[in-house]
Amino acid sequence: MKERHMAAGDTLKELDRVLEIVSKEKNIAKEKLVEVVEAAILTAARKKWGHLGEMEAHYDSEKGEVELFQFKTVSENVQDENIEMTMDEARKLDPEAQVGDSLGVKMDAKFGRIAAQAAKQVIVQKLRDAEREVVYNEFKDRIGELITGVVRRIEKGGDIIIDLGRTEAIIPRNEQVPAERYKNGERLQGYFFEIGRGGGPQIILSRSHPMFVKRLFEIETPEISEGIVEIKGVARDPGARTKIAVYSRDSDVDPVGACVGRKGSRVQTVVQELRGEKIDIVQWDDETAKFVCNAIAPAEVSRIIIKEKEHKMEIVVPDDQLSLAIGKKGQNVRLAAQLTGWDLDVLSESRIDELTSRHKAALTKVLGVDDGTALVLYGNGYRAIEDIAGVSEEEFSELPGMDKKRLGEIYAKASSAIAMGVATSDVIAEIVEAAEALKREQAAEAAKKAAATAAQETVTTETNEEK
């Protein structure tokens, strides 16, 4: 079968000039607009002449016109004139036409109201799709940047629509900072983290994202853009507090000082953009325990107990530092945990001493060891009989500072206790209850003695008065 041939003709006039204007105004390639118009004309034609079979719309760039063609098959025996043509008719269009060829016959594109409305709808939809494609291609490589615009309106559901000039962005309600309030017409900045291709604004911004704070510091701190200082991590409670960990590749450059700036100028600029959010800048360290100590600031740390298997740390602080270390509603320790990636538990010195004493007593009671041995076990992470029975005997026998035979006996006792259903928590509860009972007895005895003393003093006073 030969390729299709299309005869020339007039359909729509002066279209090229219109396409040029729209292309410049909408920043849409002219070729894309041609496709839009061709699709619209074809839709209208099918709406009116769908029974005529296959049709095509073709834009003639030289004439600046759209021509509509109905394709018919060349046949020796024409049965349906709507979709077939005789050889004589075909030879008028193409002298070399053969039976079976499909030839395009120019149509007069005069549409009725319904067909014209269909064409208009197609043009509107296709233009909208083309505009969205332009926006997508323009912004897809900018994800991760900060974008500034003007608040155009606040939707009923709380989403903020931002005017960026030729397009719009959106800050969804769940990407806003709860305490912040926004007004129409104000300039607003956000972190560009997602681009969509569906309906509605495509450019999705956030003011609550941790990366928003990171990008702000990158702008304010030249040492970061120069690659000297690096932000290793950000933990954020939007609107309340942010902790960032920084590191310097140059020992002569203080990473914390670089981000703070002279007289706090740099960090204050970031705080103003975040509308008063508190910021803790801490030094990152490849030594995990030291990094955790830095992250829990401003509280002072007495010592840290690391539980590698549980990926957990117990942070021991002076009693008067406990509330500072935990923070309001647990904020400080929660952010420190996010920043370091460790599960953190903050304990006061008095509390850890109390727990240590109880666990040592439990080990002594169940295993029959002395205080010194219990302290060695506890100090090496074996705080409970479950910890001992939870490892292999071979691993436990490697415990330094103790005889292997003795360790074997301890391991056997711990395993036997577990098999009998003994739990360290129950043993501690018994020890605590016994201690409380002893306190109650001592208090009762002291009260009894005090009452006896008071009675004796009363008798003595009465005797003296009688004399």
Question: What class do helices, strands and sheet pairing give?
Answer: alpha/beta
Discrete helix count:
17
| N-end to C-end Cα span | 146 Å
**How many runs of DSSP E, i.e. beta strands?**
15
The CATH class name of one domain reads: Alpha Beta
Strand order of the largest sheet: 5-6-7-9-8
Percent helix range: 40-55%
CATH homologous superfamily assignment of one domain? NusA, N-terminal domain
Give a quick account of the main beta sheet: strands, pairing sense, barrel closure: 5 strands, mixed, barrel
What is the name of the CATH topology of one domain? N Utilization Substance Protein A, Chain:P, domain 4
What is the mean pLDDT? 83
The portion of residues forming beta strands comes to: 15-25%
Q: Based on the structure given, which CATH architecture of one domain is correct?
A: 2-Layer Sandwich
What coarse outline follows from CA principal-axis ratios?
elongated
Low-confidence stretches: 1-13
> Rg to the nearest angstrom?
41 Å
